[in-house]
Every structure is written in structure tokens, then in C-alpha cells.
Design a protein that fits this description.
The complex is a heterodimer.
Chain A (H helix, E strand, L loop, with lengths): L2 H5 L2 E7 L2 E7 L5 H8 L18 E4 L2 E4 L12 E3 L1 H4 L8 H9 L8 H14 L5 H7 L11 H13 L5
Parallel strand pairs in A: 1-5
Antiparallel strand pairs in A: 1-2, 3-4, 3-5
Helix pairs in contact in A: 4-7
Chain B lengths: L14 H5 L15 E7 L5 E8 L9 E3 L24 E2 L5 E7 L2 H10 E7 L6 H5 L11 E9 L11 E10 L11 E7 L3 E6 L4 H12 L6 E5 L12 H15 L5 E4 L2 H7 L6 E10 L4 E13 L5 H11 L8 E10 L13 H19 L3 H6 L21 H12 L1 H14 L4 E14 L5 H5 L2 E6 L5 E4 L9 H13 L6 E3 L18 H22 L9 H15 L2 E6 L8 E2 L4 E2 L4 E14 L5 E11 L6 H21 L4 E2 L2 E2 L18 E6 L22 H13 L5 E2 L3 H11 L1
Helix pairs in contact in B: 4-5, 7-8, 8-17, 13-14, 16-17
The chains are: A alpha+beta, B alpha+beta.
Chain lengths: 166, 746
């Protein structure tokens, strides 16, 4: 794509947290920036900008991705879920969020939205994760505060809540 | 009414906002008319600035441009010395030193503009390592490259060497730089103009440090400068001093732009290449020991690389110096230490603050000494552990009960250490597997609060206020950076007053609204500031009781009613408490002798490893952390501090390698500077012994935050020595170094 094409704005239609939007954007803009700046969904964080840390994790059609690596044109027609969508429509926390609070899974909180989405995604794909499943399922999301132990505890507790034994 | 809040895992105050993504960090804030700021930095490590040129194709008239000439006050970051400029003025002393600032409303154009500025510098010879600096290869700071020296002198080590029947063991150890790698990079927003003064919002640990720095930078009186901490995504020391720099930069741009808000958020590459890291260090030990394994003399030389400017190196050096001789009794100790200058970005605060470096050296050296005496590492330490009534290297008499041998026993029991040590030795010798196993430990202490007379100089203040509904707010500049300040302060205050946890909240740290409770550093928040929170809260109760509104025994409803009446009659109900040293504490700054810290946390950490002698990978299989930290205020937060600190220590030991080229970090990306992921870490098992500290809050809490950074590196290398038989002396121990070490040993 030429410079001119990249900077020419275009319409992208997608659904974010259940609401359909038509966004006037530069097609190569990062999904992360569009979420944060155009839609003011600032729960999605930038940690590294190169897909290493996972702070910008979102779900696209149910798959966990780093939104800093996704040009917004790629979500044309897709369902995007951000941390704001995990609790959408009410005050009730998701079992994973509740478990993060109870088990000490969040410290500084900057990795937490991405980590919660990674855990939600893990449990959606693997409702009864083993210890190794949890460790590998969350390995794309870096946390500098917790040493991950309390995050593992939170995932296990969320499973128990869901009535499934981990 | 709450009966016992201390020791209970109450929910983190800001937990809900963090798990829902509602918590607002500085990059989540925006202001009308806001500009984005960027920093043009030096491409070379040392030299004279010849010219700055602005390239073609950029509408420069749309930009706000700030150079050293635009600074209204003094061009120096106020910290300990005034040697570090905000913007280089004719001369640069390290790569990536800030030279010029730009602001524009379009951040994409701003980035193109930043790249279009060329700083032409006549390069001068530079020094890049502490060895080069010590050798005086080039004098790059002061008269001798030395920022600071200390001498701790107990007994007379020089009398010892000639004594008969002693074993003398020497060793040299070194540690590399380490990046704090908080997941939220440094960032601020500033609004500044002559009419309204300067306001900075940002990610930071120490609002009053930034406040002090801005006063100097703008030559303004204290009431014209305001600093507000936003939700902060990790600090670990990396947001102790640096926010004064980036905060000043954003404020200078806003000032020049007539008060338009300016936001500066570093991207990861800039944060890693330009901001502070852990000081690299070199330690030499000469130890004299009897044939029965009693320490007679420890002669220690400790050097840290401070980088290009003084910043906090003197205090980092101080903590490293005082911890260098560890929790052992030895009649003759000399620690000679130096912080030296190099032409790399200034090294700064990072959890442990000099202690992990000197403790690494000591705990490796003591395994070597034990081997020379023919004792096991454990038995050798048992014969030398400090006990109540004995003195540390600085001559501090330990007045609290201390039981290092008990901690060692507990750690060994939890790990089955003795049996594993024996089994691994046998299996490593017998089988031909490429997987070699080892178990090792380190025993250490960490002082809480500022060193020596530091807390006396700080004279921290905490306030508490109650409203007409009886709700209590704690007023402190101590920041929540993930470690749990909001939660433990609320626990301490509600415990002191016998109120529900939910009735107490923390005011946002805002220098316009809270007193200076000191910086959020040095494992001081719980023990030192927490004690002030407790006294300020008690002050509220005493005021109500003094006014005859509250009886000796009261219910929560009684409290609410008393507050209602007080506020109605007299207005605001506030109470303040200021630090006073505990009785009998003395420190001599000249001789570096006396009570270095009010209290110490004590610990024994055990690591179990597997070394693959084919791939040169090292895996930590199990990690047990046993410590005595006084009363544990919140068991989950406390364990979280230990687990997180141990994870950082494992990174420091095996993964995190800063690669330097001509004084510049060249692996300044998360892709090639590798911190541990959830798949890399062993189970980290945490065990607390509680020995209440009589001057601590909430029934005797001490400090905890830095402690877990100290023991990991030596415990792991001690374990690797068992696995491989090679005495490694440097961390990080990267696979390449492991390969060289094993090959040399074959």
C-alpha cells in the first residue's frame, strides 16, 4: 500500500462490545489506537507496541489477539470484545474478575485488563485447565508485579466458581 | 463493627476499577487543546554540541520547540546534587541525553518531526564501564569520576590477616544492569503558565520529589506548583526520580505554549533506552575464618556504576554498603565503597536499591568460604548468624528477637533441602544425564525505611480527616503503585479506630491537598508511613474524646454521631502526625556507625534448579521464600509482594541482560530483553514468621517490598554450583556464559 493509500481514510464496520460502529479511520491505524482514541475504550492498554506484553489484548471473534498488531481494517465485519465488554450491561463482575480481586491477581493493574481477557479466553477454550494449561495460556501476557502466582490462583478459583474442577 | 481487620485479606481498595479497566492511568486522560510532546536526544555518549538542524518537509512554525535557553529557572533536576540538566546545554554526557523538546497536536507528525531534527555533536572520549571509570581512562565527572565513597569500619581487619591458623578466602563478583520494566511506561500531562503556575499529573512514586524539582526548574514558590499522581502501572524504583525529568519536560513545553496541556508518554523503546536501570556492580571479598568456621574478618570493596550524573547513586551505594556484610556476627568488618561515573544514562532506584548487588556477592562468597573450611553452606552460616544483642557491621546492636537459624530450619523443612542436596550430589555424579540438578540457598536481611538519619531529615507528615458522616480519609503523598498502599493504610486506620474498612479511604496523592509523607521507596510505606497513619487516625479519636463527643468505648454509630456533632460545631475534623525516631536510635553520618535502620526483615530463600548441559538452559524448579517481616497486615498482598519480587530476582539472575554498545542499551525492546513469563517461573512458595516490631503499626509491621529482590540471585547461583560444579560469579548468568563456564571446567 502506498503512503497515500495508507493515510486515506476509509470506513470500517465492526461490532465492539455488542454495539455496531462504522468508523472513519486510516486503514492501517492500529486497532489499539482506534479503541482508545476514537471509541474512548481506555481499558485496553499499550505496554510495548510490538505484541510481546499482551496489555492490549482483546478478543476478535472470540480469539485473543494483541490489538497493537492489528490494522483496524482487519476487523471489518468482526466482533471485538474489550475489557469494558466483559462486564457490559450491568454491575455484575465476570467470575474471572471477581476471582482476580479475591485472590490478589491485580496489583498495579496495568496488565490486568489484558490478563483478564486472556483468562476468559483460556476458560472459553479449556474449561478445565491443568496447571500447565494455565501457565501456557497466559504466557503471552506479561505481569511485572505478581510473579503470576496469584493470577493462577484466580483462574483456578474462577473455574471452581463455574462449577468445574480445575 | 469490625473486630479484627489486620491480617485479613480484605479486597484491594481499587481492585474493582482495575479488573474492569475503569482505572484511569495518565495515558487514559485527555484535555481540551492538548498537545503531544517528544524528546530529541543525543546520538552519542559524550561530546560538544555543534549545531541543531531542523530538516526539510516539516511545518516547523506549527511546533512548540524548547531548548535549554527557554528554562525559566535553573536547568538542573533537583535531587541530591544539581549536576543533571533537564536539557543538554552545549555538552552531552550520555547517549540519549535530552537535548530539545517538541510539541504538536498531531502525534504522527510529531514523530516525523522528532526524526527530522539532527543534533550534530563533536564526540569526545567516553567511559562505559565501572572498570574504565575506576582506572581513570578518562575523567568524565568531577576530579576523579567518583560520586561518593563510604567506609564502614568495625574492629581492625588489617590486624587479622597475619594471625596464625586462619583461612583467607578471596572472591570477586559482579552484577549487570536491570530494567525495571513496569508495564506502564513513564508518562505525564502538564499545564504550565506564568499566571496559573505549574500542574503535573503523572505516573510516579514520589509526588513531592517532582514538586521539589519543578520549583527549581521554574523558580516558583511552593504554592504555585502542584503535582498529582494518577493510577500508576508499576514503579519498582523506576518512577522514583525519573518523573521529575519527564514532568519537567512536559511543563516546559506547556509553559512555552502559553499553558496548553502537554502530554508526554514514552513508548517502550524510549523508556528502556533513556530511563534509569539497576546499578551494575563489582564486589571484592577477602574473608578470614577460623578452622572451626567462625568469621574473623570481612574486608569488602563494593563499587557501583552510577552512570553520567549523580542522581540517587550515593544513597543506592549506602544501602548496598550497609547490607554488604549481611546477617552475620563478625568482629572485624571493613566495607569500602564507591559510586563512579560512566557515560551511560544515569542508573537509579530499583527495588533493593544496592542491596541485591552486595548481598549477591556475600552469599556467593560465603558458600566458597564454607567449602574452604570443609563445612556445608548451612552449617557454616549457622555458626555465624547474628543473634539478639549482637552487633552488625555498623555497630548496631540488634534489639529485636532474631532467629535466622529458625528461618533456615523452616526453609529446609519446606524444601526437604538436606535430603535433596545429598540426592542431587549422588545423582549428578552417578548418571550420565545431561540434566544436572542443584539446590542452594541464601540468608539475608533488609532494613526498612531510610538509612541512618534519613527519616529524621524527611520528617514525614500524614493527615487524617473525618467528615460529618464519620467517613475517614487518609491524607498522604505515599502512592499506590500496585503494592497495596491504599488497602493497608485503610486497614491500619480502621484498625486504630475500630471502624469498618469500608469507612476509610485514601485521598489521591496531590501536593495541593496532602502533606509530604515522604517518597514511596525504601520499604518504608507500611512501617514508617503506616505508623503515622495510625497516629493521625488516633488523633481524630482523641480530638472527639477531648471535645466530650465520644466516650472511651464506642460503636460505629457512636463514632458517626460524634463526627456529625463535631463538624457541625467546629467545622473540619483533621489530625496530623509527624515522624519522630523511636527512642534510643543513634546514627553517625561521618563514621557510618550506629543504628542503620529502625528494623530489619530477615529471610532465608531456597532455590532448586535443573541445568541442561546440552542446551545450557537453566530452569528454576522450585522456590521457597521464608521471611520474618513483623506483623503481616494483609496476607495476600504481602505474599504478592514476595512472589513478584522473587520473579524479578529470577529475571535478574537468568533472563534479563542489558546489552550495551557505546554506552547505549541496544536491546531496548521486550522482544529481546526478556523478563519471565508465566511459563518460565517455578512455584514460588511463601512462608511468613511474624515477630511483631514494637514501633511498627497495626501490632508491629515492618517493611517488605524490597526484601524479595535480595535472595534470589545468590540462592540460584549456589544451586547452579551444586548442579555443575562451576563457581559462577556474575549475574545475569546467560546460557552463553554457562556454556563457557562448563567448557572451561571440562
Amino acid at each position: 500500500m502506498s503512503d497515500e493509500e495508507m493515510s486515506r481514510e476509509a470506513d470500517v464496520r465492526c461490532t465492539v462490545n455488542g454495539t455496531t460502529h462504522t468508523l472513519r479511520v486510516r486503514p492501517m491505524a492500529r486497532l489499539l489506537d482506534v479503541l482508545r482514541e476514537d471509541l474512548h475504550l481506555t481499558g485496553t492498554k499499550e505496554g510495548c507496541g510490538e505484541g510481546e506484553c499482551g496489555a492490549c489484548s482483546v478478543l476478535i471473534d472470540g480469539e485473543l489477539v494483541n490489538s497493537c498488531l492489528v490494522p483496524v481494517l482487519q476487523v471489518e465485519g468482526a466482533q471485538v470484545q474489550t475489557i469494558e465488554g466483559v462486564t457490559a450491561g450491568g454491575a455484575e463482575l465476570h467470575a474471572v474478575q471477581q476471582a482476580f480481586i479475591e485472590c490478589g491477581g491485580a496489583q498495579c493493574g496495568i496488565c490486568t485488563p489484558g490478563m483478564v481477557l486472556a483468562a476468559v479466553s483460556l476458560l472459553a477454550h479449556t474449561p478445565q485447565p491443568t496447571d500447565a494449561d494455565i501457565r501456557h495460556g497466559l504466557a503471552g501476557n506479561l505481569c511485572r508485579c505478581t510473579g503470576y502466582m496469584k493470577i493462577f490462583d484466580a483462574v483456578v478459583r474462577a473455574c471452581e466458581r463455574a462449577g468445574v474442577k480445575a | 463493627m469490625q473486630t479484627e481487620i489486620v491480617g485479613k485479606p480484605v479486597p484491594r481498595k481499587e481492585g474493582r476499577s482495575k479488573v474492569t479497566g475503569a482505572a484511569r492511568y495518565v495515558d487514559d486522560l485527555s484535555m481540551p487543546g492538548m498537545l503531544y510532546g517528544a524528546t530529541v536526544r543525543s546520538p552519542v555518549a559524550r561530546g560538544r554540541i555543534r549545531a541543531v538542524t531542523f530538516g526539510e518537509g516539516i511545518p516547523w512554525d506549527e511546533f512548540v520547540v524548547v531548548t535549554a535557553k527557554d528554562i525559566p529557572g535553573e536547568n538542573a533536576v533537583a535531587l541530591i546534587l544539581l549536576d543533571q540538566p533537564y536539557l543538554a546545554d552545549g555538552f552531552v554526557n550520555h547517549a540519549e541525553e535530552p537535548v530539545l523538546l517538541l510539541a504538536h497536536e498531531d502525534k504522527h507528525l510529531l514523530e516525523r518531526a522528532r526524526r527530522a531534527v539532527t543534533v550534530d555533536i563533536e564526540p569526545l572520549p567516553a567511559v562505559f564501564t565501572l572498570e574504565e571509570s575506576l582506572a581513570g581512562k578518562e575523567i568524565v565527572w568531577g576530579e576523579d569520576n567518583v560520586f561518593k565513597t563510604y567506609l564502614v569500619d568495625k574492629g581492625d581487619v588489617d590486624e587479622v590477616w597475619a594471625q596464625p591458623d586462619l583461612l583467607i578466602v578471596e572472591g570477586e563478583y559482579s552484577t549487570g544492569a536491570q530494567e525495571q520494566l513496569y508495564i506502564e511506561t513513564n508518562g505525564v500531562i502538564a499545564v504550565a503558565n506564568a499566571a496559573e503556575g505549574v500542574t503535573v499529573w503523572g505516573s510516579m512514586q514520589c509526588p513531592y520529589y517532582v514538586h521539589k524539582a519543578l520549583l527549581k526548574l521554574f523558580a516558583l514558590p511552593p504554592e504555585r506548583v502542584r503535582v498529582v499522581q494518577c493510577e500508576t502501572g508499576g514503579g519498582f524504583g523506576g518512577k522514583e526520580e525519573y518523573p521529575s525529568m519527564i514532568g519537567g519536560h512536559a511543563a516546559l513545553l506547556s509553559w512555552k505554549a502559553g499553558g496548553r496541556p502537554v502530554k508526554i508518554i514514552y513508548d517502550r523503546a524510549e523508556d528502556m533506552v533513556a530511563t534509569t536501570k539497576r546499578h551494575p556492580s563489582l564486589t571484592r571479598h577477602r574473608t578470614a575464618v577460623t578452622r572451626e568456621g567462625k568469621l574473623v574478618a570481612m574486608d569488602i570493596e563494593f563499587v557501583v556504576d552510577g552512570g553520567a550524573y549523580a542522581t540517587l547513586s550515593a544513597v543506592v551505594l549506602s544501602r548496598g554498603t550497609i547490607h554488604a556484610a549481611g546477617p552475620y556476627t563478625c568482629p572485624n568488618v571493613r566495607v569500602r565503597s564507591r559510586a563512579v561515573a560512566t557515560n551511560v544514562p544515569p542508573h537509579g532506584a530499583f527495588r533493593g536499591f544496592g542491596a541485591p548487588q552486595s548481598i549477591f556477592a556475600l552469599e556467593r562468597q560465603l558458600d566458597k568460604v564454607a567449602g574452604a573450611v570443609g563445612l556445608s553452606p548451612a552449617e557454616f552460616r549457622r555458626r555465624n548468624f547474628i543473634r539478639e544483642g549482637e552487633t552488625t557491621a555498623t555497630g548496631q546492636v540488634i534489639r529485636e528477637p532474631v532467629d535466622m537459624a529458625g528461618l533456615l530450619d523452616r526453609a529446609f523443612e519446606l524444601t526437604d533441602y538436606e535430603a535433596k542436596r545429598e540426592r542431587f550430589a549422588r545423582e549428578n555424579a552417578e548418571n550420565n544425564s545431561t540434566q544436572k540438578r542443584g539446590i542452594g540457598f541464601a540468608s539475608f536481611m533488609h532494613g526498612a525505611g531510610f538509612t541512618g538519619s534519613g527519616e529524621d531529615y524527611l520528617k514525614s507528615i500524614v493527615g487524617a480527616e473525618a467528615d460529618a458522616e464519620g467517613r475517614v480519609r487518609v491524607l498522604a503523598a505515599s502512592t499506590e503503585i500496585g503494592q497495596g498502599t491504599n488497602t493497608i493504610f485503610a486497614q491500619i486506620a480502621s484498625n486504630a479506630l475500630g471502624l469498618d474498612y469500608d469507612l476509610v479511604e485514601m485521598a489521591q496523592p496531590d501536593t495541593g491537598n496532602v502533606p509530604d509523607s515522604g517518597p514511596t521507596v525504601a520499604s518504608r510505606t507500611c512501617m514508617i508511613v503506616g505508623k503515622l497513619v495510625e497516629s493521625a487516625a488516633v488523633g481524630l479519636r482523641q480530638t472527639l474524646q477531648g471535645a466530650g463527643l465520644l466516650t472511651e468505648e464506642y460503636t460505629q454509630d457512636g463514632w458517626r454521631e460524634a463526627c456529625r456533632q463535631y463538624v457541625e460545631r467546629y467545622g473540619a475534623l483533621k489530625s496530623f502526625s509527624q515522624y519522630k525516631p523511636p527512642p534510643g536510635v543513634h546514627w553517625d553520618d561521618e563514621k557510618y556507625q550506629g543504628d542503620a535502620y529502625g528494623a530489619y526483615a530477615w529471610a532465608v530463600y531456597v532455590a532448586e534448579v535443573t541445568v541442561d548441559t546440552l542446551t545450557y538452559e537453566t530452569r528454576v524448579d522450585d522456590f521457597v521464600a521464608v521471611q520474618e517481616v513483623g506483623k503481616v497486615v494483609h496476607p495476600i498482598l504481602a505474599a504478592g509482594q514476595i512472589e513478584g519480587g522473587v520473579a524479578q530476582a529470577i529475571g535478574f539472575t537468568l533472563y534479563e541482560n542489558v546489552v550495551w554498545q557505546d554506552g547505549r542499551m541496544i536491546n531496548n525492546q521486550m522482544t529481546n530483553y526478556v523478563m519471565p513469563t508465566s511459563a518460565d517461573l517455578p512455584p514460588i512458595r511463601v512462608h511468613f514468621e511474624e515477630q511483631p516490631y514494637q514501633y511498627g503499626p497495626a501490632g508491629g509491621a515492618k517493611g517488605i517490598g524490597e526484601l524479595p529482590m535480595d535472595g534470589g540471585a545468590p540462592a540460584i547461583l549456589n544451586a547452579i554450583e551444586q548442579a555443575t560444579g562451576v563457581r559462577f560469579t556474575h549475574v545475569p548468568l546467560m546460557p552463553e556464559a554457562l556454556m563457557r563456564g562448563l567448557n572451561e571446567n571440562r
